[in-house]
Amino acid sequence: MAESKITETLRDWLVRGLKTGNANRLPVLLLGIITLGVYGFIEIADEVAEGEIRHFDEALFLMFRVAGDPSRALGPAWLQETAVEVTAVGGYPLIVLTLAAVCGFFIVTRHYGAALYAVASIGSGALISYTLKQYYARPRPDLVDHLDTVHTASFPSGHALVTTVAYLTLAAIVVGYLETGRARIYVISVAVLVAVMVGVSRVYLGVHWPSDVAAGWALGAAWASFSWLIFHMLQRRDLRTRKWQTQ
Prior knowledge:
The chain is mainly alpha-helical. Helix content is 74%, strand content 3%. The chain has helices spanning 2-15, 25-50, 54-62, 77-88, 92-108, 112-136, 158-175, 181-204, 210-246; strands spanning 65-66, 69-73. A two-stranded antiparallel sheet has the order 1-2. It is globular and about 55 Å long. Helix 1 (2-15) crosses helix 6 (112-136), helix 5 (92-108) runs antiparallel to helix 6 (112-136) and helix 7 packs antiparallel against helix 8 (181-204). The relative contact order is 0.18. It has 9 helices and 2 strands. The protein has one domain (23-240).
């Protein structure tokens, strides 16, 4: 009896204050994104492992450089400074600070489920990024000098992957409280735009191949959707349990 009470309390904490969206359409949408994201990542990873994507990578990479002088990035000096600032949005320090602030708010308002969801999704996404970098150990681009400091391997882009997971996860929490489709689309669009801008900045700064970024986007979207789906299923299960207990 005591164990059952503890389990029920933990379940209450998990789903308290967490709304995950439409009960019927959301799982189908998330499963579609998961499937496409994982498939896209696997395809890109295979091409990278076989070295068949190098020519395509170089062609896209050099589009961000002055023709005839690859050492110079396109645009004025202020654009390079802006790219450095944009790429910082996807760096671990800012993401950790944002996550801490958001989770602190959820905790003081007793929305424990939302806090746990954010930490679990983003934290596991960062772990996946680190593990895959160690596994593939792809060297960073060597065509130009890097305009940003890097310390890890190149594939997949950790900035692209973790930024996608982080901002889509936070957007998923917000979307659950919105009533109109227009507002939901806006929030998701902002999250996607941030992830795209961070990913493009990595190529512009010369620290990632385009395929690194594309793989990060694909797997990041898949993992954020998988996390959302898991918590959605937990919430639906809790609601069914409560309904059964009241009958």
